[in-house]
Automatic annotation (TrEMBL):
InterPro entries: ATPase_NBD, Euk-type_GlcNAc_Kinase. This is BadF-type ATPase. The lineage of its organism: Bacteria, Pseudomonadati, Bacteroidota, Chitinophagia, Chitinophagales. PANTHER family: N-ACETYL-D-GLUCOSAMINE KINASE.
Length: 289
């Protein structure tokens, strides 16, 4: 790949997507709503691409390569859908669609070996070496799985509030912040679109009340569940660095570090967003080509 070519890189979660247009070696960043072909309709994805991305790119820009890393892209038909939609707007580009785990692994590890965890709106884990995912534990989604994720933690917050487990201090703080009734919460969880992102929004309540023993219990239990169900299932977790990527990982890295120390795991990089690591990965690819 020549450095005169322009590549478009995307890292998309359920809530938001970070994009970088890499032209002449210089990055230009953009943000759109999250794009998940698992959760959103074809028309909704097309609308996001048109109004939130393409409309803001430089006119006449020729994009030669697209690398899209996203949640909900594990299934082949979802990858094909994203390839089709991106090709509608960038017909001349060579397009690759990968899972968000591949993106997280490339951002955190580059070409080195490591165990990589995503802890964002959802969660996932893989073992990565030589530029490829070698092992992958498929998740069960936000209803049955996504342990340690924003959705998982937000669900716990709602349970503690609605079951009146929170003490008076936290119950009052919750109501003052959200003014949500039981009926309104249940309607948004069971009847509205993207309940996973709605649930995940309540995980922020935890970061605002660090130090309260109930908050710390939710964080420790939720993140320990991720280690128990996923990290501990890989023998490589004790022979390679364990990297963490995502907003939850970034916000609660002190809890992750403590769990790693207690279990004699080597903690690796903790990245808030994969996009800058992905830009570095593809810039290195340009230089090597």
């Amino acid at each position: 790949m020549e450095d005169t070519q322009t590549i478009l890189i995307a890292d998309s979660g359920s809530t938001k997507a970070d994009w970088c247009l890499l032209h002449m070696g210089l990055p230009h960043y953009y943000r759109t709503s999250g794009i998940s072909p698992y959760l959103l309709s074809e028309n909704r994805i097309r609308e996001i691409l048109q109004t939130e991305l393409v409309a803001h790119l430089p006119r006449g820009m020729h994009v030669s390569h697209i690398y899209f890393y996203g949640t909900g892209c594990a299934a082949n038909h979802h990858q094909q859908l994203m390839h089709k939609l991106l090709s509608e707007f960038f017909p001349a580009a060579q397009t690759e669609v990968h899972t968000d785990l591949v993106g997280a692994a490339r951002a955190a590890c580059g070409q080195s070996a490591g165990v990589v965890a995503i802890l964002g709106t959802g969660s996932g884990l893989c073992y990565y070496e030589q530029g490829q995912i070698v092992k992958y534990r498929p998740g069960l989604g936000y209803i049955l799985g996504d342990e340690g994720s924003g959705t998982y933690l937000g669900k716990k917050v709602l349970q503690y509030y609605l079951y009146e487990i929170f003490d008076e201090e936290l119950r009052e703080a919750f109501y003052e912040k959200y003014h949500e009734t039981r009926d309104a919460i249940l309607d948004k969880v069971y009847r509205q679109l993207t309940p996973n992102t709605y649930l995940a929004s309540f995980s922020r309540f935890l970061s605002e009340h660090r130090g309260h023993y109930m908050v710390e219990n939710i964080l420790e239990d939720g993140l320990n569940d991720f280690f128990f169900y996923h990290v501990f299932k890989y023998k490589e977790s004790w022979t390679c660095p364990v990297h963490f990527v995502g907003g939850v990982a970034w916000a609660y890295q002190d809890v992750l570090q403590e769990i790693c120390i207690l279990n004699e795991l080597q903690i690796g990089r903790i990245l808030h967003k994969p996009i800058e690591g992905l830009v570095a990965y593809h810039q290195a690819g340009i230089l090597q080509s």
